[in-house]
Amino acid sequence: MSSLAAARADNFYYPPEWEPKKGSLNKFQGQHPLRERARKLDQGILIIRFEMPFNIWCGGCNSMIAKGVRFNAEKKQVGNYYSTKIWSFTMKSACCKHEIVIQTDPKNCEYVIISGAQRKTEDYDIEDAETFALPADEERGKLADPFYRLEHQEEDLRKKKEVEPLLVRLQRVSDSRHADDYSLNRALRARLRNQKRRVEEEEGVSRRMGLGIRLLPPSEEDAAVTAAVRFASKFDRNRKNKRAAIMASSIFPDSSASASGSKRSELESKRRKIKATAASASLAGRVKPLLWQHSAGFVKH
Ligand SMILES: [Zn+2]
């Protein structure tokens, strides 16, 4: 038997040992056509995919399991309703591995939760939802009964009288809206034609401008914004550029242009230090301010 799950699932792989006289592939390999799903068949359990028919609360961790979530469930017959089998589905919730048991209820055409979960209550009041309750089949049958009719006729008539003015008004509104369907249709078509024409015009304009997109119609607001924009003149630009160049350059005169950047800055800091000491010394009157004089050029004593 091939160990490749996909090959087993397809059931198309015929091993070399197989011969037609050995029967079907399943028989040859001694397996059930449903494979793993039939592994508990001797206990009357078939493993199927079960889809949750309504929203439920998990009994283990109280989280919600939504309608439509699927489970691998063990399906087995637990009884009969007349000749209809009652099936039970046992599954483990994905959230906390809690066991949930759900059964079919053929009498009410429903699923009922037996254990492990709680159905989320989503029933609502008819009045809250502002709808009408349609008469159930039983009640509809009863209407053929003259006594039932007699008992309920009074109330039905009263209800009719109550809602009649409203119904008449709604009918009138609806009639007035749809009375002249020719002109309604005409107006609608005219609007669509106008729209089409406008789109064509706009496309033509954008084509002439060499644009690949359709421009929106010009608006006053846009015009005001564009008028407020001022582009810089050549003079402004030059002034700005010059100022930027000045701001970026060193404030010290560039005497040793040949020296490398780091060496130059080192020299400059040294020179600054010497100037500072010389200045303070000359102020104290201790040393002849040779350096100071030299650098300043025209200081006289
Ligand atoms: Zn859970």
UniProtKB/TrEMBL annotation:
GO BP annotations, alphabetical order: mRNA splicing, via spliceosome; RNA splicing
Regions of compositional bias (Low complexity) in chain numbering: 253-262
Region feature (Disordered): 253-273
This protein's GO CC annotations: post-mRNA release spliceosomal complex; U2-type spliceosomal complex
The protein's name: Coiled-coil domain-containing protein 130
Family: Belongs to the CWC16 family.
